[in-house]
Amino acid sequence: MDPKYDRLYAAVDLSRIRGNLKNIKSSLAKGTGIIAVLKADAYGHGSRVVANYISDDIEMAGVAGVSEALELRKEMEGGKLYSPPFTKPILVLGYSHPSMFEDAIANDVTLTVFDEANAKELDKAARKAGKPAEVHIAVDTGMHRIGFRPTDESVEAIRRISKLKNLRIKGIFSHFARADETAGVSETDEQEKLFRSFCDKLSREGIDAGIRHISNSAAIMTGRTDYPLVRAGIVLYGNYPSGEMNKDLIELQPSLSVRARIVNVAALEKGESVSYGHTFTADKKMKIATLAAGYADGIFRSLSNKGEVVISGKRCRIVGRICMDQMMADVTEVENCSVGDEALIFGELDGAVLPIEEVAAKAGSFNYELMCEIGRRMARVYYENGRPVETVNYI
């Protein structure tokens, strides 16, 4: 099956995702479960296909909001991996607005609670639905984003929440702020200490807060995994949380590549300029390729005149401003370059490699953001053992 796509596509290597998951698991104590973080459409990889592909090897999926959870729960038209609903537990890791409670309860979506008033609203919604709502408690140990502060007042608030008749507390978690930094070890130690201490205090007070989890991708990479569950985010997709990680601890392989069609190859005379604002002017006769990719697809405009793509195995400089739907590259030194050929924006293609970290750094960003900016105008083509097995076109 040849990939069927319009302008550009994201190639996702499912075998690598499974291999990364296997390597992550081998680094954990026996019996430790994995929450696969699938928010932001699985960091651009496509949450439905990834979720269903690894469903048997994970305990739970983590998403950012109820809408993302509902997308996973639906049955869709499409391919073998895209169509079925995801049936494993789903945890919303952030805030949920009361307007979403009814749908969350009906679809067995576990919500995060860090505010007593919000918990009471959820209790009312569950009573109305005639079905208890499952929740995890978020604890703020230093991220200062969401969560109960680890105080006596919070213990009492959680005690009251635990007594709400229509809620079931199934877990408690926190999040590290600097686990991906060597300079953040002491702060990470302190966060972990606060989390353990607070959880232990709840236990001593007779409050069952359920299963504990705090280990994110960076914590997994540094061995902070002494919990029943860990949350695998960017490492699941084969990328490291930062350049400070010891890559020897867990072998990972990037699973995402972005490739675009060449739609035009034309001569540029000396003195002629390219794209909006004419920010690039040729100082000699050149050959310019136009690619069907732009900032509306998640290709950062800040790569204009400084980023690179790979065409026919050679690195080619991006010239002129990146447009909404198109971008140009200097292919003067590329002998074989024709309309319809594929250009590599980042990742791998025919043995050539252009790491996402390098591209993101040139854009003034980092790997997470570049992945998450990939638009849904872009098809997702899924590979297993080097063979395309499914294509998802969102539009």
If you had to describe this structure to a student in words, what would you say it looks like?
It is a single chain. This protein is 26% helix and 26% strand. It is α/β, with parallel strands linked by helices and 395 residues long. The protein folds into two domains: 14-237, Alanine racemase (TIM Barrel), CATH 3.20.20.10; 256-392, Lyase, Ornithine Decarboxylase, Chain A, domain 1. The longest helix has 20 residues, at 185-204. The two termini are 20 Å apart. 47% of the residues are buried. The mean pLDDT is 97.
Which descriptors would you attach to this protein?
395 residues, alpha/beta, TIM Barrel, Lyase, Ornithine Decarboxylase, Chain A, domain 1, eight-stranded parallel sheet, six-stranded antiparallel β-barrel
Strand content: 25-35%
Distance between the ends: 20 Å
What's the tally of helices?
11
Number of domains: 2
Residues in helix, %: 25-40%
pLDDT < 50 runs, ≥5 residues: none
| Strands side by side in the biggest sheet | 8-7-6-5-4-3-2-9
Average pLDDT works out at 97
Q: Which radius of gyration do the C-alpha atoms yield?
A: 24 Å
Which structural class matches the secondary elements? Answer: alpha/beta
What's the total count of β strands? Answer: 20
How would you name the CATH homologous superfamily of the largest domain?
Answer: Alanine racemase
CATH class of the largest domain: Alpha Beta
Please state the second-level CATH architecture of the largest domain: Alpha-Beta Barrel
Rough outline: elongated
Main sheet summary: 8 strands, parallel
> What is the name of the CATH topology of the largest domain?
TIM Barrel
